[in-house]
Design a protein that fits this description.
With about 120 residues, this protein is an all-beta fold. It contains no helices and eleven strands. Strands 2, 4, 5, 6, 9, 10 and 11 form a seven-stranded mixed beta sheet that branches. A four-stranded antiparallel beta sheet has the order 1-3-8-7, with no helix packed on it.
């Protein structure tokens, strides 16, 4: 079993930056493809970014390309999401996901087997 805990969310002004962290415990995630999703009130949980187990391959939703960067440090059992030039449309609960058996550019929540509880990101205008 793996437990995931997200941190780093908060309230930020439009144009600002936040760095989210996802720290895993229980087992190593060094062999796991990892992802970030987000969900706004009343909406579906949407793909944001994904990264291969080695960190060599990344994918991003079109809405965040050029602004967000996913990375990982397997020695720390941690995945990061650096979010720059934030927009009000980025407001959502952000979830870390692990235990994926596929890595594609259009991932869905069912591609992942383990989830954190989420961290709130609010971007004010």
């Amino acid at each position: 079993q793996v437990q995931l805990i997200e941190s780093g969310g908060g309230l930020v002004q439009a144009g600002g930056s936040l760095r989210l962290s996802c720290t895993a415990s229980g087992r190593s995630i060094g062999s796991d493809h990892m992802g970030w999703f987000r969900q706004a009130p009343g909406k579906e949980r949407d793909f944001v970014a994904a990264i291969s187990w080695s960190g060599g391959t990344t994918y991003y939703a079109d809405s965040v390309k050029g602004r967000f960067t996913i990375s990982r440090d397997n020695t720390k059992n941690t995945v990061y999401l650096q979010m720059n030039n934030l927009k009000p449309e980025d407001t959502a609960v952000y979830y870390c996901a692990a235990d994926a058996t596929v890595l594609v550019g259009d991932m869905t929540p069912t591609d992942f087997g383990s989830w954190g509880r989420g961290t709130q990101v609010t971007v004010s205008s």
